Amino acid sequence: FPSHDRAQWLDRKDMVFPADKPAVFAKILSAQNNTTTAMAWLVYGSPQEEHKNEYERFFILEGACQIIYADRIVELKAGDYHSVPPLVAHELRVTSNVPCKCIIQYVAA
Prior knowledge:
Low-confidence stretches: none
Shape: globular
Number of helices: 1
Distance between the termini: 27 Å
Strand order of the largest sheet: 1-2-9-4-7
Structural class: mainly beta
Order of helices and strands: HEEEEEEEEE
């Protein structure tokens, strides 16, 4: 949807990166039986992880990052979407000079 439409809810005062700037900050937007959605800011990235029973979905809003798998690297920038399937080890590395702001969704497999 057009950027002016999403700015109405993405740029609200309660959806900004906190002044003390932790390395990772997330704000839950919605939590239902099978899906949790959060707005997240990552300064450096996240350690390697593997989800047993859920997909992890990323929609990048600002900044850039890499999703690093054992056999490949996926480059993501603002506007990109990527889904990590269950049982796949991955880590996220921020590649921009600004925190990577994204919507992360965990969806039951």
